[in-house]
């Protein structure tokens, strides 16, 4: 099934490069190049994730600029990369699971919705993308949750988060291995999967909303672009030539669609992300009794601290991180797929 093939809207035709599905990919090249490319993306965006995580565990709201200034002043540039080594270790296998589940689900669901159910390409595309995002997020969380727990605890070490400005329950760790050891010693394997349920509830809908929104935004933007250029070019009106965008236009539309989808997804799932972060980072007020914080207790604490607004702390950095990550991810992902095709000559045109 093609999600970016030529579309026919208002008698205007847009000729886009054919989509590459799972069967066309050289799997070893796809996963190897993907690990390298997305590790670079993760490293570039990691400081924003650190800012978002620290904001979510603060008792009082603090702006991103003040937070960044505090980190730079007390910890230096290194403070923006606390826990990055641990995070990178999990990024590679998690991304491999994510990309594999995404492409397999998208291909299978796409064939079912168009072939057996007879849905239109637009509807089938949105459904297939939503299902693919859902299954990819669930698969990746098997690896990502333990890495998330450790890396987030390392992110909030030092600086302002060791002061009374931060929520109770933070412990001190000397690197990723020490954090793994202490968490397993205190809570067993269950400690590494703390917040797994809320992570699924956060990332699965978030990915489903993102991929469905991306599919819809992508088609809407191309429809507008096609109408605009075909009004300028009289040859489109005859339906014989149509509009054939260049590579830069394709990348711009992909990036804009990704940014719009990120805004929708961030707004819908931000409260769940804040609750998840606190469950994974904080040991709770009842740690002396061996009881980790519950979801209900975490929600009560957030509402007590700042009402509903407390659940949206870090929304700015999260939206920025999601937008930049998604824009980079989708353009890199499409580039990766074209690099990994079994017969690249057939897709050169």
UniProtKB/TrEMBL annotation:
UniProt KW keywords: Membrane, Repeat, Transmembrane, Transmembrane helix, Transport
Coarse class of the protein's main subcellular location: membrane
A Pfam family per the record: Mito_carr
Topology with respect to the bilayer: Multi-pass membrane protein
Solcar repeat segments: 30-108, 124-220, 249-339
InterPro entries cross-referenced by the UniProt entry: MCP, MCP_dom_sf, MCP_transmembrane
Transmembrane segments: 30-51
UniProt-annotated location(s): Membrane
GO cellular component assignments: membrane
Keyword Magnesium: no
Family stated for the protein in its record: Belongs to the mitochondrial carrier (TC 2.A.29) family.
Protein name, as recorded: Mitochondrial substrate carrier family protein
UniProt organism field: Forsythia ovata
Species classification: Eukaryota, Viridiplantae, Streptophyta, Embryophyta, Tracheophyta
């Amino acid at each position: 099934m093609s999600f970016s093939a030529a579309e026919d809207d208002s008698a205007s035709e847009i000729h886009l490069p054919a989509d590459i599905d799972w069967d066309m990919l050289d799997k070893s090249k796809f996963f190897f190049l993907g690990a390298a490319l997305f590790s670079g993306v993760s490293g570039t965006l990691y400081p924003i994730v650190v800012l978002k995580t620290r904001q979510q565990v603060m008792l009082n709201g603090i702006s991103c600029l003040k937070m960044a200034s505090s980190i730079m002043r007390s910890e230096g540039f290194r403070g923006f990369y606390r826990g990055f080594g641990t995070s990178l270790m999990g990024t590679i296998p998690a991304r491999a699971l994510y990309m594999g589940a995404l492409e397999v689900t998208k291909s299978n669901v796409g064939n079912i919705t168009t072939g057996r159910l007879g849905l239109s390409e637009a509807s089938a595309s949105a459904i297939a993308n939503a299902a693919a995002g859902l299954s990819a997020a669930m698969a990746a969380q098997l690896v990502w949750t333990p890495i998330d727990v450790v890396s987030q605890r390392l992110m909030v070490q030092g600086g302002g988060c060791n002061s009374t400005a931060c929520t109770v329950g933070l412990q001190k760790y000397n690197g990723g291995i020490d954090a793994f050891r202490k968490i397993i010693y205190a809570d067993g394997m269950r400690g590494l999967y703390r917040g797994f349920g809320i992570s699924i509830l956060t990332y699965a809908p978030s990915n489903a909303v993102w991929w469905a929104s991306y599919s819809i935004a992508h088609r809407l933007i191309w429809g507008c672009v096609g109408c605009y250029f075909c009004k300028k070019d009289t040859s489109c009106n005859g339906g014989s030539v149509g509009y054939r965008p260049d590579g830069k236009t394709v990348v711009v539309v992909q990036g804009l669609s990704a940014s719009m989808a990120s805004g929708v997804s961030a707004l819908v799932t931000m409260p769940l992300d804040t609750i998840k972060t606190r469950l994974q980072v904080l040991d709770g007020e009842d740690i002396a009794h061996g009881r980790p914080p519950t979801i209900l207790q975490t929600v009560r604490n957030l509402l007590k601290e700042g009402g509903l607004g407390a659940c949206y702390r870090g929304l700015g950095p999260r939206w920025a991180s999601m937008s930049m990550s998604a824009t980079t991810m989708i353009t890199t992902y499409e580039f990766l797929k074209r690099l990994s095709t079994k017969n690249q000559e057939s897709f050169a045109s």
